[in-house]
Design goal:
135 residues; alpha+beta
Length: 135
């Protein structure tokens, strides 16, 4: 079962600069910051009046966000994350409908899978049952 939109992922050149802007203009609060060396990325979960955003900064050129920034050097919208009760169950259900799922990561504290943009009208959609609070 789908619970809610968990967060919107945004690729940024510099988390600290973007966070300072969001704090100054909108009263944003940083909830968590995590390093992901295996995918060359730092992520910051930021809340603005009840809505979470994941600010993603590349730490190297070969990770997903580093590659994304090659085509969008100033960053921008990357994905929308949907929180569900049962990640594997939802993925199985979607695959039975012919939806292409990529990046299944069921182990660890960040349990996610992604709907391929070709199956989602050009949108990259992250599915999670752990939510952005754990990030």
């Amino acid at each position: 079962m789908i619970k809610r939109v968990d967060h919107v992922g945004i690729a940024v050149e510099n988390i600290d600069d973007t966070l300072a802007f969001l704090k100054d203009c909108f009263g944003a609060e940083e909830l968590a910051r995590n390093e992901y060396p295996e995918i060359q990325q730092t992520s910051s979960t930021v809340n603005i009046q009840g809505t979470n955003f994941e600010l993603m900064e590349p730490t190297g050129p070969d990770g997903v966000i580093g590659q994304f920034m090659k085509n969008s050097p100033r960053g921008g919208y990357h994905h929308i994350s949907i929180l569900c009760d049962d990640l594997e169950g939802l993925v199985d259900e979607l695959e039975k409908k012919g939806i292409k799922i990529i990046g299944k990561m069921y182990d660890g504290p960040d349990r996610v899978a992604f709907i391929h943009p070709k199956s989602a009208k050009g949108l990259l959609i992250e599915l999670t049952d752990t939510g952005s609070v754990t990030r």
